[in-house]
Amino acid sequence: MSRFTQNLHDPEGERLQKVLAHAGVGSRRACEELIEEGRVSVDGHIVTQLGIRVDPSRVAIHVDGNRIQVDESKLTVALYKPPGVVSTMQDDQGRKTLQDFVQDRAERLFHVGRLDVDTEGLILLSNDGELTHRLTHPSFEVPKTYIARVEGTVTRGLGKVLEKGITLEDGPVKVDEFVLRESARKNSIIEVTLHSGRNRIVRRIMDEVGHPVMELVRTCFGNITIGRLKPGQTRVIGGSELSALMNLVDL
């Protein structure tokens, strides 16, 4: 083992290929081949020798540049929040909270951002503090997608207006993408993607342009989609999906 590799080696740790296999990267032999091909890095350094041992809770491991979550104590969950649920883990008013949907889990989870009480859809819960911080920090500009039923007849020209930007009482805002899904006399269905995390931002935008929101569902958070989840259901985020989410915020 080279002096360089020795600096990364933890004699009390697990073999790197075993850690990768447990994380779902592939079979033990497939992970050994990835290491030998120079496709695995530990704390930013390429490793090509099979003898290295690591502590999964103390190192950052990437395969082909993609971060692999190897710390089994870390958990990230996608939840379909039903309307009427407050985006907190506990509530002194006795209202239904996010905790009610993950109370069977041993891990102490925290919500990644919020949805207002009337909005339903995708919200993430995690005990990974650094991932949570980055996903909610404005500098990383994580995109979120919403589908809304709004009052009135929406024209396609509204998309150009919103993509160019409008000004609210707390400053300018614009959407990244606008899709008019259905337009009728009394109400319309739109899809908007934006990275702003400001409070009730979609509702405030649509109020400003004269089309108040009647129903609102968040369908995507970064690369995570609501998929087949139904209100109140959860699923664990892992594998390549989690790697892509971590890469989105430079982890």
From TrEMBL:
For the keyword RNA-binding, the answer is yes
A Gene Ontology biological process in which this protein takes part is: enzyme-directed rRNA pseudouridine synthesis
Question: What reaction(s) does this enzyme catalyze?
Answer: a uridine in RNA = a pseudouridine in RNA
Q: What is its EC number?
A: 5.4.99.-
- What keywords were assigned to this record? Isomerase, RNA-binding
Question: What domain of life is recorded for the organism?
Answer: Bacteria
Top enzyme category: isomerase
Give the matching SUPFAM superfamilies: Alpha-L RNA-binding motif, Pseudouridine synthase
Q: Does the keyword Nucleotide-binding apply?
A: no
Q: Matching InterPro entries, A to Z? A: PsdUridine_s_RsuA/RluB/E/F_cat, PsdUridine_synth_cat_dom_sf, PsdUridine_synth_RsuA/RluA, PsdUridine_synth_RsuA/RluB/E/F, PsdUridine_synth_RsuA/RluB_CS, RsuA_PseudoU_synthase, S4_RNA-bd, S4_RNA-bd_sf
Q: Name one GO molecular function term.
A: rRNA pseudouridine synthase activity
Tell me where in this chain the RNA-binding S4 domain is found: 14-73
Q: Which PANTHER family match?
A: PSEUDOURIDINE SYNTHASE FAMILY PROTEIN-RELATED, RNA-BINDING S4 DOMAIN-CONTAINING PROTEIN
Q: Its family?
A: Belongs to the pseudouridine synthase RsuA family.
Protein name per the record: Pseudouridine synthase
